[in-house]
Every structure is written in C-alpha cells, then in structure tokens.
Design a protein that fits this description.
Strand 13, helix 11 and strand 14 (361-366) form a beta-alpha-beta unit. The chain has 473 residues and is α/β, with parallel strands linked by helices. It has a five-stranded parallel β-sheet with strand order 2-1-3-4-5, with helices on both faces. A five-stranded mixed β-barrel has the order 15-16-17-19-18. The protein folds into three domains: 9-143, Rossmann fold, CATH 3.40.50.12160; 147-407, pyruvate-formate lyase- activating enzyme; 413-472. It is built from twelve helices and 19 strands. The protein is globular.
Length: 473
C-alpha cells in the first residue's frame, strides 16, 4: 500500500476494442486498491497509462499521439505504454523505434497487463526490495494475464464489459491481432460467473460478454468423457472443434444471475448463428436482440482474399435466422473498403449486398496496410483517393439504413436502461439505450440510474447532443 508515501495519482486512456475497455477497468481497480488515486487524463498525474491499439495504422498513430500528449502534460510523470501497440513493436522490426521512444518510460505487453501494478511500483520505488523492472527484461517470468485481471466494482457505471476470452486463431489476411494477442484462451465459466455475480451485487444490471474472438469461447477447453472400459478420454470435438456449447453454457449461466437484467454479446462470427444457436438464444429473454456480425465485405472474391470463412449467401442466411426468431433485431457490422484487389465491380457487389441485408449500423473502415500481414504483400493496393470515395459512399448508405431502422420505432413502445440525466431545452431527461442499443431519452421528474424506463417513441431527436435519439412519451 502507498499510505506511507504521498498518494500517487494515475490516469488511464483506452484505445481500441471492448477487451481493452475491460482490461483498463481492471487495471484501474488494481491501482486504486494499492492506494493510487485516479484522475482525469487531462489532469496532472504521476502515472499516465495508455492502453494502446494496433489494429490499423490510424490506431498506431493515435497511440503515439496519446503517449506524447501525456509526456507534455507532465514531463516528470511515469508514462506507461500497454497492450497491442507494444506487442507489435516487439515483433516487428519496422516498429522497433517504439521501444526506444523517449516519451515512454515503461512498456507493458498484453501478457503482463495482469502484473502492471507491481511493474509500476517497481519503477516508482526502485529502492524497495523486490521491486520489479521492465517485463521485457524477465519474459520467462511473465504469467498469462487472463488469470490476473478481475473487476469487482464499477462506480457510476450501468454497463459492464466482461472479457471472457482472449486471442484469435482465424488469421484473416489483413489482421495483425492474432500475432499480438496470440492463440485463443478462454476464461473458466465459473470465473466469469463469479465476476459478474459480484458486479450484480454492486448494482450492475447490464453486462457485455466480449473477447478478441468471442465465437471461439471454450474451444480451448478439453471436454473429457468416460469410455466403456472406464478410461477417461478427450472428446473428439476438443480444442479447435469445440462447437458452440461452451458459449451457450456461459450465456445461460449469466442469464441465471439475480440482478442482471440484460446480456449483450460482443462481435460474433456469422457461422456461429446456425438454427440451434439462435433458437436457444431466443429462449433467454435477458439476451438483447443486438447482434454484431463481422462481415468485412459483401463480395465473395474479396472475402476469399481476406481469408474469411463464409460466403455472402451464408452471411445472409445467418441474418435471416436471427430475424426469424426476433421481430426487430439490431444487426450491425464492420465493412472494409479498398482491400487489395477490390475492383469497381467488387465494390458494387459489396454495396448491393449491404443494401440487401439492411443493417442497423455499419462501421466503415478504409483498408490500412499492416506490416506482417499477408494483405500488406498483396498486389493491387487501392489508391487512397479511391478508398476515401468508397468510404464516403458506404457511410452515407449506413446513415440511411440506420435512420430507417429508428423510424420503425415511431408509434411503438420501447424501454431503456437509465444511464445519465441530461438537459434538453431546459427540461430534465433520462438517457439510455434500449435492448437493440438505440439511444432513447424521456422527460423525467426524478432520475434513478439503472432504472428501466418505458414509453412510446414519438419522434427522432434533432438536438446535436443526442442526435437521432428516440424521444419517448
């Protein structure tokens, strides 16, 4: 504990995915428990932690910018670079300069996030006996971080991101993440449930189950079964062929936790959404009908070059199944434009497929070359100007489809979980998201966070602060 020292202040900034959000929450809690005081990133601090991302070149740039911004805020502070940007630099010669960046005082790869507190203490108080130094000096001592990060409290939050899985075995041709996060590793079901039960006891009502590749949850578990001769054997669907049962088992277990009102799922593979899986999900009323199905392209040939293991037709069938069991589900996705070799014809094919699916939201990304991936070495790299034009076209389509999805609520009743109180034209309103993750507001007399509020959607708000939100009466 730091009680004999002047209390140290820390600030943390998170880039990238929901897994990083969870890990930052866990890191913050761990530091507070040993006596640190958390402050805003814009405030003076003794320690600045940037939980980095390296999924694109833009993410790399943002990671560098935040590290240098922290150094400017307090040149005497300890600047900590943690996560995927660090791992990528350790593995890629073209990024080795990151390891010598004068703005960085401590490098923490993903494997060491679970021991970041002792690493920070070792830097701040090197005179103390047994103080740790940089993790790269003792890689053999680094324990898998998944077993060390745990969240027990989230003050002021209504929604908790719960990391249940790490790593990815898919190796899409454009993606660096399997190299920086490693092979899949799932948390034991009991561990996840214990964490969520503790948060429910503290007032959390909504959880988001997330992972680097959530659809792989449990595929690394060894399912043992007894043979007729009494010997224990590993079942034939072990490891890579683990099936969907482990993820369903986890969702069912979370569904049974008293206090949890809503369960959301992170990004899913379309192949996961077969008839059995969707039918079983639909039996669990706490599961929100909000499904993020990774697509990347609506063109068959582009998907092949991306090493995505489905066709547009198979993807569309997964969406059809979801809509068969849920009356108005929110289906969202990611789309990459300008992937190497994407012709005008392929882009047009992808665009028309997106129209056919009718998404609630699309996140559109211009392809970004990543050293170390197969796509970086592909011929037919698309000019930036072409990528920009295609991106603008799909963003306009996304806005059109999203507005259409919201219009379907007008005149109908919906409900949302109160997250915060806001002021609109001098009136008090509660703000939150409904089960399909559409932002809603409703005029109130008193505000109660975590309360479920219902009403009829009468209009779509045009106020800048809550643009496109549903106004309930």
């Amino acid at each position: 504990m730091l009680k004999d020292q002047n209390q140290k202040k820390f600030a943390i900034h998170t880039l990238g995915c929901k897994v990083n959000t969870y890990e930052s929450d866990a890191i913050s809690e761990a530091l507070r428990k040993v006596g640190f005081l958390e402050v805003s990133f814009a405030d003076p601090a003794d320690v600045y932690i940037i939980n980095t991302c390296t999924v694109t070149n833009v993410a790399d740039k943002k990671s560098r910018q935040m590290l240098h911004r922290a150094k400017k805020l307090n040149p005497e502070a300890l600047i900590v670079a943690a996560g995927c940007y660090v791992d990528a630099a350790m593995q890629n010669e073209s990024m080795q300069a990151v390891l010598r960046d004068s703005a960085i005082d401590l490098l923490v790869p993903n494997r060491d996030k679970g021991r970041i507190t002792e690493l920070i203490l070792g830097k701040l108080f090197p005179e103390k006996e047994g103080a740790e130094t940089d993790p790269e000096q003792h890689p053999e001592e680094a324990a898998p971080e998944a077993g060390h990060l745990f969240v027990t409290e989230l003050d002021g939050h209504t929604r908790a991101f719960i990391k249940v899985q790490d790593g990815c075995n898919q190796f899409c041709s454009y993606c660096i993440i399997p190299y920086v996060r490693g092979r899949i590793k799932s948390r034991p079901l009991e561990d996840c449930v214990a964490e969520i039960r503790g948060l429910a006891d503290k007032g959390i009502r909504e959880v988001v189950l997330t992972g680097i590749h959530l659809s792989s949850y449990g595929k690394d578990f060894r399912r043992e079964e007894s043979s007729r001769d009494g010997e224990t054997r590993v079942a034939s669907d072990d490891i890579e062929n683990g099936g969907k049962a482990p993820l369903l088992d986890l969702i069912r277990a979370v569904h049974g936790i008293s206090g949890i009102r809503r369960i959301r799922l992170g990004s899913l593979e379309p192949r996961l959404m077969d008839e059995d899986f969707v039918r079983e999900l639909a039996k669990l009323p706490k599961v929100c009908p909000h499904f993020h199905l990774s697509l990347q392209s609506g063109c068959r040939e582009t998907l092949k070059r991306m090493n995505r293991h489905y066709t547009p037709e198979e993807y569309l069938e997964s969406c059809r199944r979801i809509r068969q069991y849920y009356p108005h589900p929110a289906i969202t996705t990611d789309v990459i434009v300008g992937f190497p070799g994407e012709t005008e014809e392929e882009f047009a094919e992808s665009r028309e497929f997106l129209r056919k699916v009718r998404f609630y939201e699309m996140h559109v990304f211009k392809y970004s070359r990543r050293a170390g991936t197969r796509a970086d070495r592909m011929e037919g790299q698309v000019p930036e100007a072409v990528k920009e034009a295609r991106s603008r076209e799909l963003i306009a389509l996304a806005e059109e489809m999203s507005h259409s999805f919201r219009r379907d609520y007008l005149g109908k009743e919906t409900e949302f979980l109160c997250e915060e109180e806001i002021s609109l034209q001098g009136e008090r309103y509660a703000l939150g998201y409904n089960r399909e993750y559409v932002k809603c507001v409703k005029k109130i007399e008193t505000f109660h966070q975590n309360e479920i509020v219902s009403g009829t959607a009468t209009e779509i708000c045009k106020e800048k602060a809550v643009y496109e939100s549903l106004i309930l009466r």
